[in-house]
Amino acid sequence: MVIELPGIAEQQAFVFKEGTKAAIEQLKANLNAPRLMPQSEIDESKYPRTHLLREREGWEPPHPDVVGAYFRHFQSNFTEYNTDAKLAALLGLSSDRRIRTFKEGSTTVPYGVWRRFLVITGRVPQDIIPVLAFMA
User: Fold this and answer.
1) What Å distances lie between residue 83 and 10, 75, 97, CA to CA?
2) Which residues contact 84 (CB under 8 A, 6 or more apart)?
3) How far apart are CA 89 and CA 118, in angstroms?
4) What percentage of the chain exceeds 90 in pLDDT?
5) CB atoms within 10 A of CB 71
6) Does residue 29 belong to any structural domain of this protein?
7) What CATH number is attached to the domain comprising 92?
8) What is the pTM of this model?
9) Residue 135: which pLDDT band, with cuts at 50, 70 and 90?
10) 122 near 33, Cβ under 8 Å?
C-alpha cells in the first residue's frame, strides 16, 4: 500500500493558509472584546503618550507609574492574571520578578513586552506584517 503525501512546500503552504485564516478570525473576534472602564489610579494627562507609539514613530518606555497603574487595572479586571507570575506568563516572561521591576521602575519595560500588553488591552492595534514572498 502506498500513501501519496503532498510535498513539503505544499504542506507548508497549507499550514500558512490555515494559520492566516485562524489569525483573521481572531482579529474579527478581537473587535467584540468587552469594553471596560479605564484605569483611575493616575491622571494620564500628566504623562507623555509616547509609550503608545510604535518604535519607528518615536516610542519611549512608559513611566513606572503608568506601568503599575495599567498592570494593576488589568489584573483587577482579569482574575486569571491577578498575580505577577500569571501576568508574566501572559506576556511571555519567565519570571514574575520582571513584572515587579517594571512596576517599581528599576527596569524599563522592553518595547516588545509593552506592545504586547497594549495590544492585549486594546490600547493599540496589532501590527500586520506583509509577506513579500515565499522563500523556501
Assistant:
1) 44, 7, 11
2) 96, 97, 99, 100
3) 15
4) 91
5) 22
6) no
7) 1.10.260
8) 0.89
9) confident
10) yes
Q: List, for residues 3-22, the tens digit of each pLDDT value.
A: 888 888 899 999 999 999 99
Q: Within a domain: residue 108?
A: yes
Distance between CA atoms of residues 35 and 30, nearest Å: 11
By residue range, what is the domain housing residue 67?
A: 44-120
Question: Of 133, 132, 114, 134, which is closest to residue 124 (Cα–Cα)?
Answer: 114
Residue 107: inside a domain: yes
Write out the three cell numbers for 110: 522592553
Please write the tens of the pLDDT for every residue from 71-107: 999 999 999 999 999 999 999 999 999 999 999 999 9
Q: Round the CA-based radius of gyration of the chain to a whole number and report it.
A: 19
